[in-house]
Amino acid sequence: PKLLVMLAAVLPVMAGIGALHALSRAIAAAHRRGWLNDHSFSLAAGALLVLLFAVLPGWNSTGPAGLLPLLAWLWVPPAIAWLLPRLSPAPPAPGTPLLVLRLFRRPGPVGWLFDQVVQRWRFVGPVLLITASDLAGRTLDADELVQFLEGRLGERFIAATDPLPPPVAAPDRDGRFRVQEFCCYDSSWQMVLEQLLQRSQVVLMDLRGFGPAHRGCLHELGRLGASAHLQRVVLLADASTDRAIAAEAFAAGSANVPAAQAPPLQWVEERRRRHPTMEAVLAALTLV
């Protein structure tokens, strides 16, 4: 009898876990194929949580019948799929890819720059990003979350001989382009950088706190200077930025291309308040 009681308690839980796992994989596949974007995922998940908190307090008195209000959630996905394209502005075609570079392992707020600048750029074009833990909470999507829970996050790392995933040129249904993030090893980030430069038209590089010890940034600055196809390069600086070293590295790369073909470079100084800084960066990025 005890075994039957245990099975009666465990089997529904296991069945629920299996169903949840299958649903999470389906959601991840839908996001990967472009059928689902982060806005629709967040809205649908929020609506489901609200319904759960509404019905769970009465579970003891109503039993399984108390879960019937959860069926109201079924109207949420089609409603989102119908509303978002109509409420969002049509993006320009084709989108302008933006490559975002920054100092790694640097303490300090980089998240606001992503929130205030990168998220706005998604209405203009796709964003390319070599990812790291400092932005993990802001770039995590449904596909990555499932891979993390299944212990398969290592599949996202790109080795030196691996091809990069193809670019995503079309926007999602909400009118925003996607952030394509690339996980690299120490042995592969330079190869990834070269390919991302070929896919980019505009570059934003956060050089707050930059100094001569940041050899990775020096390499990136040299490659930026040598990328004649770039429309513009915007460097964000603060009082601690060693501009002379950065300008020297950029100029060394520019020496490899004709002077008339060197990409235009513009510095933006960080203001005391974030909103003016955001406006200055966006103005520099969209400068014609």
Characterization of this structure:
- The chain is α/β, with parallel strands linked by helices and 288 residues long.
- 47% of the residues lie in helices and 11% in strands.
- The chain is built from 11 helices and 7 strands.
- α9 crosses α10.
- The radius of gyration is 23 Å and the shape is elongated.
- The mean pLDDT is 79.
Topology of this structure?
Blueprint: H1 2-32, H2 38-55, H3 59-62, H4 76-87, E1 98-102, H5 111-121, E2 127-130, H6 136-139, H7 142-149, E3 157-158, E4 179-184, H8 189-199, E5 202-206, H9 215-225, E6 232-237, H10 243-254, E7 265-269, H11 274-285
Parallel strand pairs: 1-2, 1-5, 2-4, 3-4, 5-6, 6-7
Helix pairs in contact: 1-7, 2-4, 5-11, 9-10
State the gist of this model:
With 288 residues, the chain is α/β, with parallel strands linked by helices. It is built from 11 helices and 7 strands. 47% of the residues lie in helices and 11% in strands.
Rg is: 23 Å
Which segments are poorly predicted (pLDDT under 50) over 5 or more consecutive residues?
none
Mean pLDDT: 79
Helix content: 40-55%
Query: Distance between the terminal alpha carbons, to the nearest Å?
Result: 77 Å
Order of helices and strands: HHHHEHEHHEEHEHEHEH
Q: Count of helices?
A: 11
Strand-residue proportion: 5-15%
For the largest beta sheet, what order do the strands appear in spatially?
Answer: 3-4-2-1-5-6-7
Largest sheet: 7 strands, parallel
Task: Please give the number of β-strands.
Answer: 7
- What coarse outline follows from CA principal-axis ratios? elongated
| Class computed from helices, strands and strand pairing | alpha/beta
